[in-house]
Design goal:
By secondary structure, the protein is mainly beta. It has a domain at 1-81 and 196-230. 7% of the residues lie in helices and 34% in strands. The protein is built from 2 helices and 17 strands. The protein has a 6-stranded mixed sheet, covered by helices on one side. A 6-stranded antiparallel sheet has the order 11-12-13-10-9-14, with no helix packed on it. Strands 2-7-16 form a 3-stranded antiparallel sheet, with no helix packed on it.
């Protein structure tokens, strides 16, 4: 059974409250008699998120359509994990207009709907890495040589990870510590999304339900849990 993948459009992500965390799946087994805590780590870590989307007259109907396409917890939401505290996407050279409407073609044209191709700031993997690795190198030359930040959420093939430390290796190549450890192998030259992308399902069927008044302004509270692809 193939589950529908629904990509949340970038314009929704410009007005989020941001909340992305790693759930390490630990389980408390209580305390020993000497007061030492006993904790079991038995599950695979996963990302969880509880962002809020602010909607207006133009986006209320779009969000209703996205929810209907996802069909509750059946569909998979492909979400750009925006976090402006650790990564400002316009620092790679894109203007806010470009981010909103997409990149035009080389001759300055857009598609018939007025939009261009999606702008997604990326780096390139410098070297090959195996699942389970906690250190990688990336080349940010194509992203205006931007320096990665500690705490930044990146991803490879929609597997998100957070940068825990950085080291400048010269010529726009950066060595990064990453957590959680890589969950899939990375080949030399693979694309690394500088703004992480992940695949999630709603934690409950009615997630993101909205109501609004005459002003047609509302907020949808979301609750996501990462989808296993094992």
């Amino acid at each position: 059974m193939t589950r529908q993948i629904v990509t949340i459009p970038a314009n929704f992500l410009r007005q989020l409250s941001y909340n992305w965390e790693i759930d390490w799946r630990e389980q408390s087994l209580g305390d020993f008699n000497d007061g030492v805590t006993n904790t079991m780590f038995g599950g695979f870590p996963r990302w969880v998120g509880a962002p809020s989307i602010h909607l207006d007259r133009e986006t209320i109907g779009q969000w209703r359509a996205i929810k209907a396409t996802a069909q509750g917890r059946y569909g998979i939401y492909r979400v750009r994990m925006a976090d402006p505290a650790s990564f400002v996407r316009t620092a790679t050279g894109a203007t806010s207009e470009t981010v909103c409407t997409g990149q035009k073609t080389a001759d300055g044209n857009t598609f018939s709907n007025g939009f261009g191709t999606e702008y997604a700031p990326i780096a390139i993997a410098s070297g090959a890495y195996a699942a389970g690795d906690e250190t990688i190198r990336i080349d940010t030359t194509g992203a205006n040589g931007i320096a990665p930040h500690v705490g930044q959420i990146m991803s490879h093939d929609d597997w998100p990870f957070v940068v825990t430390w950085t080291r400048d290796r010269g010529s726009n190549v950066w060595e990064l510590g990453v957590q959680m450890p890589l969950r899939a192998a990375i080949a030399d030259g693979d694309v690394i999304q500088l703004r992480g992308v992940g695949r999630f399902q709603a934690t409950e069927s009615g997630m993101g339900s909205i109501g609004y008044g005459a002003g047609m302004l509302t907020t949808a509270s979301l609750s996501f849990i990462e989808v296993s692809r094992r």
